[in-house]
Design brief:
The complex is a heterodimer. By secondary structure, chain A is an alpha/beta fold. Chain A is 31% helix and 24% strand. Chain A is globular. Classes of the chains: A alpha/beta, B alpha/beta.
């Protein structure tokens, strides 16, 4: 069976409950803010069931700095991507958590990408990696995924145009080899696919696999779904395999990648739970609600159990035709932003570009 | 730049035309008849309780009452309108700026109203009702003295209109008020500002415990209206609940109050939004890290945070949508020490007028401009944030 998708329900639950309980204790001890939140809200400290594991809304990391290690041990700060004017999450990683993040990424991708490091095309600009100590979600994603490839080629120039000449040369050089492509869903579509269509450029990339993530929100607005995305990329570039992944900067280790069936899978050390979007009560498989993600890896900050603002549905557990064990699920998108009425702070001067 | 009224594209010409119209006398018959027509339209808009309340406030009998009071107050004095009043309304056409516009009309002024750029006539029932009434030939005198427009954050336009007006009214948050205040105003003009405020309810635990079931039900219905009509985002919606009385009585009162409140909210079947539920949970947990916070209880219908003492900055950290800060006090004298400049409306249950008058005298800060029974927190009054609209919208000519 395929590691890290090889633990069956009962075994996995036991493992997670024990590990997550330990992590909860660790954060209670090392993060006084987390301690205050759990204690004052009456959170369950040692749970018998994953449903009862206390969770923090992802938003909290936008509202405050949460650390379970002394600041001087922080080696990396990850920030979420946010549109201008929005607050971004700040995630503090120490050596250990940063290392487990890298390791986890390698492990969850291995069943898709294999062992060998393959030539890799990154559908982004090199300039997002400028600051090596503070990474945006985009930078962190690229840096993490670039470990899977060699001879990296960044296909976008700084002005977001495609370096078509360079790309042609690169493809020629690696003719006959499997190639990995990596990019963010929206950017792949807008800056690579749509540019190619506009300029009438067709490629035959051949034996290749595209890994993409970052959310469908902007593509939903253009009525592009996963099927259209896959079909069009195959048609335009000849890309054979396309795997989406779901993950967030706020929870290291929670990278859920699509299997060959197009289902997002939970690896052994992470899990998802669906909660009612209003009451936060756990929902049964097949019902849509807010996605709660759990991972045993976050140690340097209390992010082992998080309530996201994404809606999703658990499609099944241990019975995906692809053969991987664990829960598999789909993501429907973000909940709509709240716009409360009222008489204060609602004029354009205050809110310009920062609605929500 | 988009003009909702008058129906022209040339807003500068519209301002020139408006300025040529003479002002009216206070409580002019043309104004009274316009307000009456508007009132009749608004009370029929049953889907919007706050608009109905506005329509009701504008009804003939109430305006007549105001006129009587005005005549009494200005007896043997000569009071005129100021001229042109420039209103900057908050972004969601809230009813509150209509009140200030109506009072300016009653004072006899010409009015220029800037509404939010987000508004569309088709989707804003209140705005389209107003335009409808303005279109009625019977109200030409008012129509000629009214401009309703919208424009993006454009300092030059704001500066131009500020130079033309005799009174400027700014509704909005602190940042808005600060931003617009940097734009010069005609030297002779005065200004009314309505920045961020904070409001609370003070409940006498003894009175809550001893209230009959009917009284309790009514109290909670009222409290619901105060807090939920504007998703707790109006400046006068209660966000903090202060309980007075002995500890064990307070605990009894809290149990009764909040469980009944939950039932009341559920019975309303109000639409809860997921984003607000998440926001309340996140805000509550973040606030729970404050040393003064004792407990945070997140519920589906509302959330509560108990504080030992109310921290100074807590007022800025409220997210609306049904999140209640709570604390305990021995009595009103202790409550008076908690009040800060920002505090606007105190709604109460179980206190006598004498106690409240005494309380007001004890407040050492600028805080508290309104003290009303629970259920009237959102009711508009011609005196707001400590200032009388009719007074600010008029001027007295001294004749010796």
């Amino acid at each position: 069976m395929m590691y890290p998708y090889d633990l069956a329900k009962q075994e996995k639950e036991q493992f997670l409950i024990q590990q997550l309980n330990d992590v909860t204790l660790h954060h209670l001890e090392c993060c006084s803010d987390y301690h205050a939140m759990i204690e004052k809200s009456g959170g369950v400290i040692q749970t018998q069931s994953l449903n009862e594991l206390p969770f923090l809304p992802v938003q909290l990391f936008k509202m405050m700095d949460l650390l379970s290690v002394p600041r001087e041990e922080v080696v990396k700060v990850l920030t979420s991507s946010g549109t201008t004017g929005q607050q971004v999450s700040k995630i503090y990683l120490d050596q250990e958590t940063a290392a487990s993040q890298t390791r986890a990424l390698v492990e969850v991708m291995k069943p898709v990408l294999g062992r060998q490091r393959l030539p890799m095309i990154i559908l982004d600009t090199k300039s997002v990696l400028k600051d090596r100590n503070s990474f945006s979600a985009r930078g962190a994603g690229i840096l993490g995924f670039s470990n899977f490839g060699r001879k990296h080629f960044y296909a976008l120039n700084d002005d977001m145009t495609v370096d078509w000449d360079g790309l042609h040369r690169y493809l020629k050089e690696h003719l006959g080899t499997t190639i990995i492509l990596f990019g963010f869903t929206f950017m792949v579509w807008k800056y690579f696919y749509q540019e190619a269509v506009k300029n009438n450029i067709q490629l035959k990339i051949g034996e290749s696999v595209l890994i993409h993530g970052g959310g469908w929100k902007k593509l939903q607005d253009e009525a592009v779904d996963a099927d259209i995305f896959k079909r069009e990329l195959k048609k335009q570039f000849g890309i054979q395999r396309v795997h989406n992944y779901y993950g967030m900067v706020e929870q290291v280790g929670s990278i859920f990648v699509e299997c060959e069936q197009g289902h997002l899978h939970t690896p052994n050390y992470a899990d998802v739970l669906i909660r009612d979007a209003i009451t936060f009560e756990p929902l049964a498989n097949g019902e849509q609600g807010l996605i709660q993600v759990m991972s045993v890896l976050p140690k340097s900050y209390p992010g082992h159990s998080l309530l996201t603002e994404d809606l999703g549905t658990i499609l099944g557990e241990d019975d995906c035709p692809c053969g991987w064990m664990g829960k598999y699920f789909s993501v429907a998108g973000r909940i709509p932003k709240a716009e409360l009425r009222g008489c204060s702070d609602t004029f354009a001067y205050d809110r310009k570009g920062a609605n929500g | 730049m988009r003009l909702f009224w008058p129906e022209t594209e040339d807003w500068r010409q519209a301002v020139v035309d408006l300025q040529q119209k003479e002002t009216l006398t206070p409580f002019h018959s043309a104004v009274l008849s316009f307000i009456q027509s508007l009132s009749m339209r608004l009370v029929r808009m049953r889907d919007y309780p706050e608009v109905v309340a506005l329509g009701y406030w504008l009804r003939k009998a109430h305006i007549h009452q105001m006129r009587e009071a005005w005549l009494e107050e200005t007896k043997n004095r000569f009071v005129k309108s100021r001229g042109t009043v420039f209103h900057l309304a908050p972004s969601n056409v809230d009813t509150i700026f209509i009140y200030s516009w109506m009072l300016s009309l009653l004072a006899g002024n010409r009015n220029i109203i800037r509404v939010s750029g987000k508004e569309k006539l088709q989707t804003n029932a209140l705005l389209s009702a107003i335009i409808d009434v303005l279109q009625d030939a019977a109200h030409t005198m008012i129509a000629e003295r009214t401009i309703i427009l919208t424009y993006d954050h454009d300092e030059q336009v704001t500066a131009f209109l500020s130079g033309e007006c005799h009174t400027r009214v700014i509704w909005g948050g602190d940042d808005t008020v600060n931003a617009i205040r940097r734009i010069p105003l005609a030297p002779l003009a005065n200004e009314l500002t309505f920045p961020d405020r904070f409001s609370l309810a003070v409940l006498n635990a003894e009175a809550v415990v001893h209230a009959s079931p009917e009284e309790k039900e009514l109290l909670l219905q009222h409290f619901y209206n105060d807090s939920f009509w504007f998703d707790q985002m109006a400046c006068s919606s209660p966000r903090l609940v202060v309980w007075t009385g002995p500890n064990e009585i307070i605990e009894m009162a809290q149990t009764a109050f909040w469980s009944l409140f939950d039932q009341v909210i559920r019975a309303k079947k109000a639409d809860l939004m997921s984003a607000i539920q998440v926001q309340k949970l996140a805000t509550g947990l973040a606030l729970a890290t404050d040393v003064q916070a004792n407990a945070f209880k997140h519920g589906t219908t509302f959330s509560r945070i108990a504080f030992e003492h109310i921290p100074a900055d807590i007022r800025e950290r409220h997210c609306g949508g049904g999140l209640f800060f709570e604390c305990k006090a021995n009595g009103l004298p202790e409550v008076s020490t908690m009040m800060v400049d920002k505090d606007q409306t105190l709604s109460y249950f179980g206190f006598s007028k004498e106690e409240l008058v005494e309380f007001v005298e004890m407040i050492p800060t600028r805080g508290i401009d309104r003290i009303v029974p629970v259920g009237q927190a959102l009711d508009f009054n011609g005196v707001w944030d400590g200032q009388s609209f009719l007074q600010s919208f008029t001027r007295e000519v001294v004749i010796l």
